[in-house]
Automatic annotation (TrEMBL), chain A:
SUPFAM superfamilies: RNA-binding domain, RBD, SAP domain. One of its GO terms (cellular component) is precatalytic spliceosome. GO terms for biological process: RNA splicing. Residues 363-373, 383-392, 582-592, 693-708, 1169-1180 have a biased composition (Low complexity). Residues 50-74, 95-410, 422-727, 755-881, 970-1020, 1058-1102, 1127-1229 are annotated as: Disordered. Residues 333-348 have a biased composition (Pro residues). This is Apoptotic chromatin condensation inducer 1b. Residues 13-47 form the SAP domain.
Automatic annotation (TrEMBL), chain B:
Belongs to the SAP18 family. Involved in the tethering of the SIN3 complex to core histone proteins. Keywords: Repressor, Transcription, Transcription regulation. This is Histone deacetylase complex subunit SAP18. GO terms for molecular function: transcription corepressor activity. It holds the Pfam family SAP18. Found in a mRNA splicing-dependent exon junction complex (EJC). Component of the heterotrimeric ASAP (apoptosis- and splicing-associated protein) and PSAP complexes consisting of RNPS1, SAP18 and either ACIN1 or PNN, respectively; the ASAP and PSAP complexes probably are formed mutually exclusive. For the ASAP complex, the association of SAP18 seems to require a preformed RNPS1:ACIN1 complex. Forms a complex with SIN3A and HDAC1. Interacts with SUFU. Residues 1-20 are annotated as: Disordered. It comes from Sparus aurata. Residues 7-20 have a biased composition (Basic and acidic residues). It comes from the Eukaryota. GO terms for cellular component: nucleus. The gene is SAP18.
Length: 1229, 152
């Protein structure tokens, strides 16, 4: 739009030549670099700014600033900034163009739009205010040093106004130390504009949460939002940017002042705006991040699209709760877009400052001077502000926006201003950003709910498209909204209010309960769930699937009843808001259907409440938060006479919470019982889960609420559907057995209810299951097993089932008892029959089998199996020699071991140790107690199709123990030896008559393996060395393969078979425990893997070896007896050896000593002998002395010796001795 | 089986190439010290009971090959999984004649490539339980430092 309008010397920019563009740019001290497009953009921006200046110059003394800007424009920062601004302008223009269409609804909007969007048009009013506001705050902030951030925000906010903005910014940026930071902010700001315009909701949220500072923070979004919504007056918008800047900068004091000023100026409108923009502070807290959210919001803003609002709403909702929960969120924070995490100055807050907050703050902190103020005061103030605002907006909306609310808002804003400095705003921004980005929704604080309500209401309004209402809203956003809501609510449905009241009561009850005892609440919830389950069952009985809606209502009613009982009825604003929100959500969800079905709405609302309840239960922390906030709020609210007051109260309450937040967090922590860090994490997780819904939008919230309800329904519905398959199975059996039909139906009925319960149990995971669990688990398996062949039949049966359900319980009990008996009896019958005739029985066995299955169903036996279908009437004679072991081949999945066992158990009792099935469940070996049973089984199952989906027919033949052993992998050395002997042993199993390929193949394979092994053995025995090694390796491999052969998940089953009795009885909880244990083990295994290396996954070092407790542990194994004995022997031998050696050594030494002594003695004797000749002795002494001196001197000695006649001989002898000291002695010896 | 049960470390010592039944033989704790600078630790870094900080503890057996050890190290150090990363193995053993530790080069492997030392086992290099292993990891882009600097 504007682009077209901008001309240079009457020519559209695009038509200009590059040279002209450059010249124009040069005139404006702008860079001439870049392509034509960039040049055009730059020039456009400059022109727009000029236009703005022209228009605005008359109004305010911005010119100095603008001049400054021009001077500064040479700065690279400024250039970048200008470019960004241009981009922003473009985007805004586009938006505005879109918005204008939409904005026409509200009168206020067009004005604002004009001002902001059309710079050329430049509405004096807006510009003046903006400029004045901007200039003042900017100056103050600059002084403070926080101006940079402010600048960024301003830029953001001003985008449309471009003119003054750039000038100011350059100056500030230069002055401000954190130029880089500003840049970052700018970028963000720029990003914002490209994104869809910020939605009103966001802005409102931010304002509420943060309070006045929020406005400032919001600024970027605000102007746009205002434009779009048209509700916000131009003045506040202008003020906001300034404030925002200050806050972003670190909450300079100037910001507060500005806010106050703004409020004063705006008056009633502002106050209204404050309400709407309450979120603004949140935006400020978010700082850089806030803008993106706002961007998203704007597009939706246009009244036309409810969805967009929904989407936008979530962010709004999120921020306030986050503010409350900040500690939690901070820790968890989803990483915000913001930059590097700096120190978080929030030591006071119990929250462990999350990275997000840090990040958000970091930029601000980096800016410098501002960072210092942030810390403690900021946190509390922010929290309080956010809480107060967030809480305040909601209640007023619904109830009464009157003058009181305005006053309250003002008071709050002022208080917030004083209490909360810009620093706090910064902190908040960080938090908000986190929340907005992150999962804050999980702990949906009342604020969120309130926001949701608002959003919903807004949606409704839009839907109605009442221009008047819209105008009013825009002008008096929240107040009007509240009024409208009230009006609408009253008009449309007083029911909603009633529901709300109920909800409130419920919520209050919940709150109290939680406060009093969270545990109690949990219990209640569990009870509720139980009740629901029961109700579901009842419903199923009485109602058809089509009446599911009624079920939901019933559930809701039950929930209500529970709640009402507990009601203490402190009408807390939060509860109200919640109720409102829930109702709204329900409405929104069924926006089109609002009027259609009151009952539905009730359901939805109830469901929403339920969902909320669930959330609470799930997220105890979130619930606690709510409670805390509610408590605080509730007290004041109770005291408050007017509805408006609740807002103020809530705000007040929230403020205390900010102080109390630490406490809350602590409480949460305590509840969680996990360390703080963990708790925080958990919270974040939960929040993340919930957040997605909230983030999705207001609609998302409503949907989530409904979704929770739906889940319930789904569970029930799924359970219903699940019934069908089981029924179908039964029907099949029925079809096959005409006479038994009635019985079958009963059985079916029993199965279904249980299944339903199961489904419910799964969802709720309550203690209630325990009763049902015993039977249930098995049934479950049954359902899985059964193919959904006859759904139609199942449906028809359902009604019957429902009617019969009451009887189920009795039947169940009796059936269990009966079951065993019936099975055993039938089995015995079949066995006997089999014994009587070999082939004649063929037909009968099948029948008996079928009957059995039916009877089992009647009895409530857990396992249902496809009835084997006989393809051929006459089974071929057995190939192997009759034994008590049978080999069943051609098994085809799907079937479970349990089913197979059930099938096999029909005709006899399986010896658990003698059962083996290969890992793909294609064939199995079964050992029966007696050969007769094996024969009966073969008669029953040979040439039978089982399970139903099996394209092949089972073949059953007898086999020998060795084969089984071999397959069991038991092949111990002894067994292997046996195998070697096998060939000699007559093989009964070999099929003399009709070779069954599969079996032969199997056997052939086995035999080959055996041969290999035998060969290995022989090699091992015969040859030692390399071959041996290879054999060892091979064996090792085989062993490992065997270990792998058993899949881990089948191992348990196999073990289960080992203890036949326990299978059915095992309770689910036990199984779960075991699973958990296994999971833990698996983790351990993973960690161990590193250490183990190539260890086959199946076996762990810990399984194979003992280990020391000291870390790092050392693995060890006790020696076998033999080894121990051997070791002992060795040791003793070694000791003996050692002793012997020792003795020898000693002896030698003694000898040496003796010899030495002798030598000495000899030497003395010699000396003594030579004493007669003193000369000789003297010579000897001389010689010794010389020896001591060392060999080096020998030469000298020789020389010396040359002097005296005697000496030569003596020296010669001495030298000789010294040279070969030891040798001469040895010789002597 | 019976044969396997007989296999013990004593046997291993006697017959270094005899395969080890890893399910019967207790694993030894191998303390591995790694560097990613391409150079090995200095012997004095092991002196007086000190050890470098970059320790991996691996339970393995005497028949563990360098390749196997490499794979274990790669499990722990993702950056070492890059193709071409060079692992140089040194056994760190106390000098019997003094209190000093000595490093003995036993070979090297390169991830993603086959090498002659891949199948080299600890026991083939006279590794004794209690010795350390020092592995110098060299990122792929850098040439293996000292790879064959020493002529012997």
């Amino acid at each position: 739009m504007a682009d077209e309008d901008i001309t240079l010397d009457g020519k559209p920019l695009q038509s200009l030549r590059v040279a002209d563009l450059k010249a124009a740019l040069e005139q404006r001290n702008l860079s001439k670099s870049g392509q034509k497009n960039t040049l055009v953009k730059r020039l456009k921006g400059a022109l727009m700014l000029e236009n703005l200046q022209k228009s605005s110059s008359s109004h305010s003394g911005l010119q100095p600033n603008s001049q400054m800007g021009e001077e500064m424009s040479q700065n690279s920062f400024i250039k970048q900034y200008l470019a960004k601004q241009q981009e922003l302008l473009r985007q805004r223009l586009e938006r505005e163009a879109q918005q204008d269409d939409e904005a026409d609804e509200s009168p206020a909007v067009p004005e604002e739009d004009d001002d902001h969007s059309d710079d050329n048009d430049s509405s004096p009013y807006v510009h003046d205010k903006n400029r004045s506001m901007l200039s003042q705050p900017s100056m103050t902030r600059v002084e403070q040093g926080g101006g940079d951030s402010l600048m960024g925000h301003r830029m953001m906010a001003r985008g449309p106004d471009m003119g003054p903005g750039p000038n100011l910014h350059p100056q500030e940026s230069l002055e401000a130390p954190g130029a880089r930071m500003q840049r970052a902010t700018f970028h963000q700001g720029h990003k914002e504009p490209p994104a869809p315009s910020p939605p009103r909701a966001v802005a409102s949220l931010s304002v509420r949460v943060l309070g006045q500072p929020d406005r400032q923070g919001l600024p970027p979004a605000v102007p746009r939002a205002q434009e779009k919504e048209g509700t916000a007056p131009s003045e506040p918008g202008s003020a906001h940017p300034v404030l925002h800047l200050s806050r972003s900068a670190g909450g300079s004091a100037g910001g507060q002042v500005h806010e106050e000023n703004d409020e004063d100026d705006s008056g009633d409108d502002e106050s209204e705006d404050d309400d709407d923009w309450g979120p603004g502070p949140g935006g400020a807290r978010r700082g850089n991040r806030a803008p993106p959210q706002s961007q998203q919001m704007p597009p939706s803003v246009p009244s036309t699209v409810a969805r967009s609002k929904r989407k936008l709403q979530p962010p709004q909702h999120i921020p306030p709760p986050q503010a409350h929960h900040t500690p939690m969120q901070l820790r968890h924070p989803t990483p915000p877009p913001s930059p590097p995490p700096d120190l978080f100055p929030l030591p006071d807050t119990p929250k462990q400052s999350p990275p997000d907050d840090r990040e958000g703050e970091a930029p601000e902190a980096a800016r410098g001077p501002r960072a210092a103020p942030f810390p403690a005061p900021n946190v509390q103030g922010q929290d309080s502000d956010s809480s107060s605002r967030s809480s305040s907006p909601e209640p007023p909306v619904k109830r009464r926006p009157g003058p009181l609310s305005l006053l309250v808002h003002k008071m709050e804003s002022e208080a917030a201003c004083h209490a909360v400095e810009a620093t706090s705003a910064i902190d908040m921004s960080g938090e908000k950003a986190h929340s907005s980005t992150g999962p804050a929704s999980s702990t949906e604080s009342p604020l969120q709910k309130l926001e949701k309500k608002r959003l919903q209401e807004n949606r409704e309004m839009e839907e109605e498209k009442r221009l008047k209402e819209e105008k009013e809203r825009e002008q008096h956003q929240e107040q009007e909204r509240q009024r409208r809501r009230l009006q609408e609510q009253e008009r449309e449905k007083k029911r909603l209010e009633e529901e709300k009241e109920r909800k409130r009561l419920e919520e209050e009850e919940k709150l109290r309960q939680k406060e009093e005892r969270e545990k109690e609440q949990k219990r209640q919830e569990e009870e509720r769930e139980k009740e629901r389950k029961r109700q579901d069952e009842e419903k199923r009985r009485v109602e058809n699937l089509q009446k599911e809606k009624y079920k939901g209502e019933e559930k809701a009613s039950k929930g209500r009843v529970v709640v009402t009982k507990a009601q203490d009825s402190d009408s807390s604003s939060d509860s109200d808001s919640k109720s409102d929100s829930s109702s709204h959500s329900s409405r929104s969800s069924s926006s089109s259907q609002d009027k259609a079905r009151p009952a539905r709405q009730l359901k939805k609302s109830d469901q929403g409440q339920e969902a909320e309840d669930e959330k609470k239960t799930n997220l105890s922390k979130g619930a606690e938060k709510r409670y805390l906030s509610k408590r605080e709020v509730s007290e004041p609210s109770a005291a408050a006479v007017t509805e408006v007051e609740p807002e103020s109260e809530s705000s007040m309450a929230q403020q205390p919470p900010s102080g109390a937040e630490p406490e809350n967090s602590e409480g949460r922590l305590e509840e969680s019982t996990t360390p703080k860090a963990f708790a925080a994490r958990k919270i974040s997780l939960t929040s993340s889960k919930t957040s997605p819904a909230t983030t999705d939008g207001g609609a998302g919230d409503a949907e989530t609420a409904t979704a929770a309800g739906r889940k319930r329904r789904w569970g029930s519905s799924t359970s219903v559907t699940a019934k069908k398959p089981s029924i179908s199975i039964t029907t099949d059996s029925l079809k096959s057995l005409i006479p038994d039909i009635k019985v079958n139906q009963e059985a079916v009925v029993e199965l279904h209810p249980e299944e339903l319960q199961l489904s419910g149990d799964e969802e709720s995971l309550d203690a209630t299951r325990d009763d049902q669990d015993k039977g249930l688990k098995i049934r479950r398996t049954v359902t899985q097993i059964v193919p959904g062949d006859g759904q139609e039949n199942g449906q028809t049966n359902e009604e019957e089932e429902e009617v019969e359900k009451p009887e189920k319980d009795k039947q169940r009990r009796t059936s269990r008892d009966k079951r065993k008996n019936s099975v055993s009896e039938e089995a015995s019958e079949t066995q006997t029959s089999v014994n009587l005739d070999g082939e004649a029985k063929k037909v009968t066995p099948s029948d008996s089998v079928v009957r059995r299955s039916i009877s089992q169903q009647k009895s409530g036996v857990s396992v249902t199996i496809d009835d084997p279908v006989r393809t051929t009437r006459q089974p071929s004679p057995p190939h192997g020699k009759i034994s008590n072991i049978i080999h069943v081949t051609n098994l085809v999945r799907p079937f479970t071991l349990g089913q197979l066992k059930e099938l096999l158990n029909r005709t006899g009792s399986i010896v658990e140790d003698g059962f083996w099935i290969d890992k793909i469940k294609s064939h199995c070996f079964v050992t029966y107690a007696t050969a007769e049973e094996a024969v009966a089984t073969r008669a029953a199952l040979h040439r039978v199709k089982w399970p139903m989906s099996n394209p092949k027919v089972l073949t059953v033949d007898f086999c020998e123990q060795e084969e089984l052993d071999f397959h069991k992998g038991v092949l111990k050395p002894e067994n292997e030896k046996d195998h070697v002997a096998q060939p000699v042993v007559p093989q009964n199993r070999l099929p003399p008559l009709m070779p069954e390929r599969d079996r032969d193949r199997e056997r052939g394979r086995d035999r080959d393996k055996d041969r290999e092994r035998d060969g290995d053995r022989e090699r091992d025995r015969g040859v030692v060395g390399v071959r041996d090694l290879w054999a060892e390796r091979e064996r090792e491999m085989q062993r490992r393969e065997r270990a792998r052969g058993e899949r881990e998940w089948d191992r348990d089953k196999v073990q289960e078979f080992a203890r036949p009795g326990e299978d059915g009885r095992r309770s689910r909880s036990r199984e779960r425990e075991r699973r958990r244990r296994e999971r833990g083990k698996s983790k351990e295994r993973k960690t161990d893997k590193k250490e183990k290396g190539d260890e086959p996954p199946a076996k762990l070092l810990d399984d194979l070896f003992l280990k020391t407790k000291a870390a790092p542990c050392i693995y060890w194994l006790p020696h076998t007896e033999e080894q121990a004995a051997q070791r002992l022997l060795d040791r003793t031998e070694r000791q003996k050896e050692r002793e012997r050696r020792h003795k020898e050594q000693q002896e030698e030494e003694e000898k040496k000593r003796e010899e030495e002594k002798k030598e000495r003695l000899k030497g003395r004797e010699k000396e003594g002998g030579s004493t007669a000749s003193g000369a000789a002795a003297g010579r000897g002494a001389d010689a010794d002395r010389e020896r001591d001196r060392g060999r080096d001197r020998e030469g000298d000695k020789k020389r010396d010796s040359g002097h005296g006649p005697r000496r030569p001989s003596a020296s010669a002898s001495g030298g000789r001795r010294s040279r070969s000291r030891s040798n001469p002695r040895d010789r002597r010896r | 089986m019976a044969l396997e049960s007989r296999i013990t470390q004593e046997e291993i010592k006697k017959e270094p190439e005899k395969p080890i039944d890893r399910e019967k033989t207790c694993p030894l704790l191998l303390r591995v010290f790694t560097t990613n600078s391409g150079r090995h630790h200095r012997p004095d870094e092991f002196a007086r009971g000190n050890v470098p900080s970059s320790e991996l503890q691996i339970y393995t057996w005497m028949d563990a090959t360098l390749k196997e050890l490499t794979s274990l190290v790669k499990e722990v150090y993702p950056e070492a999984r890059k193709k071409g990363t060079h692992f140089s193995f040194n056994i760190v053993y106390p000098d019997p004649r003094g209190k000093v530790y000595r490093l003995k080069d036993i070979g090297s492997t390169v991830s993603g490539r086959k090498g002659t030392d891949d199948s080299m086992t600890l026991q083939s290099q006279r590794f004794q339980i209690g010795d350390y292993l020092d592995i110098a990891i060299t990122p792929p882009n850098r040439a293996p430092p000292l790879a064959r600097m020493r002529p012997f």
